[in-house]
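Quick bug: COMM domain-containing protein output formatted oddly.
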Amino acid sequence: MRFKFCGEADAPDWVLAEINTISKISSVRVKLVIVQILNGIIDGSLDYEKLTKVGSSSSLGSSDVEASIAGLHFILTNAAKNDVDDTTLAKELQQLGMPKEHSDSICRTYAKEKDRLQKKLLSSSLKMASDQSPEWAVDYILANQNQESSAVAHVALKTTETGQPITVALTEEKLKLLLHELKTARALMDEV
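Here's what came back:
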């Protein structure tokens, strides 16, 4: 089954496993976790102490708490990236097995912060200005006796948030794979 919050794809298996773990936490505590995660994403102020208390009061181990946070973070950020409304997100979470009280609690908080979340995600995304082309160079790495020689492409892009360049090093295989995936994504966007 395809879900809008996953970009019209299947939900990852690890998220399904975390929904089961999240269901063990009360809906009130899930709301507290959601508020902390959103604060962490939007303002950069994640209170680990409060998150640890939620886990200990729900008799979850620290690894379960961390995994639940990762699952909820994935749900929130992907829903915002894919511009999913709160009603649709609630229905999709329930289809994945999350209790109604939990999905409603998540979606009410998500609806209040959706605009701020989308603005933050947009400002921190990696983009190129339309009048700028990427700087790139290909370096050849000499092979040792056990390896073939390979080329590495270095691409420098600037983030919209800081304007600082980010250098990405890709082998020829990874560069071809990236190009193929970008072309596939472009074709999907053109269909919409």
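Actually, after a second look the formatting is fine. The first strand starts at residue 135 and ends at 141. Closing.
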